[in-house]
Structure formats: structure tokens, C-alpha cells
Amino acid sequence: MRDWGIEQKWMSVLLPLLLLYNDPFFPLSFLVNSWFPGMLDDLFQSLFLCALLLFWLCVYHGIRVQGERKCLTFYLPKFFIVGLLWLASVTLGIWQT
After folding, report:
1. 41-45 contacts, C-beta under 8 A, 24 or more apart
2. I need a labelling partner for 94 at 20 to 30 A (CA). Which of 37, 50, 65, 78 fits?
3. Average of pLDDT values for 46-63?
4. Is 46 exposed, middle or buried (CB count within 10 Å of its CB: 0-12, 13-18, 19+)?
């Protein structure tokens, strides 16, 4: 894993999230008459989409800045912006469910 590029490291995060994005708990909605399966679906969809947004932000900014990627100056502003979007999307999705 040390020799992996930035895209390969991100794919190791995005591929499991893609499986969760596909709503693996859909049959649970037929077995349980509750808001819980819908909440899980909203949570997983917003998690994948925000992780994908974070990936593209980091890749394109990494192309522009050809140097050291320090956590505080490179990743923290992106995590803050995407975290706010994730919080808003989870809140609205659960509220709608």
C-alpha cells in the first residue's frame, strides 16, 4: 500500500462505499415496518456522494498543486466543506424519510 498512488488509495475507500450506495438493506424494508431501513439508505447514499465529491476535489487540487499535501492546509478545508454538505444531506434525507 505504500507504493499506491493517490487514486488507488481513494479507490480502496470508494469501492466499499459504492456497495453501500446500492442499498444492501433494501429487503429489510419489507421485513421491518420502520423508518430505520430508509435512514440507512439515506445515510449511505449521502456518504458515498460526499466521498466522491471529496475525491474529485482532492484529485483536481492535487493536479494544480504539485507538491507536498499537508493535512492542515490541503485536506482540512475540503473535509470542512464536504462535511457540511454531508451533514445537510443526511439531515434532509432523514427528515424526509
Report:
1. 41/97, 42/89, 42/90, 42/93, 42/94, 42/96, 42/97, 43/90, 43/93, 43/94, 44/17, 44/20, 45/21, 45/93
2. 78
3. 92
4. buried
Three-state SS across 33-67?
Answer: CCCHHHHHHHHHHHHHHHHHHHHHHHHHHHHHCCC
CB-CB contact of 93 with 42 (8 Å): yes
Which run of H or of E encompasses 90?
helix 76-96
Measure the CA–CA gap between 93 and 17, rounded to whole angstroms.
18
Q: What is the pTM of this model?
A: 0.86
Cell numbers 456497495 correspond to: 19
pLDDT score for 89: 95
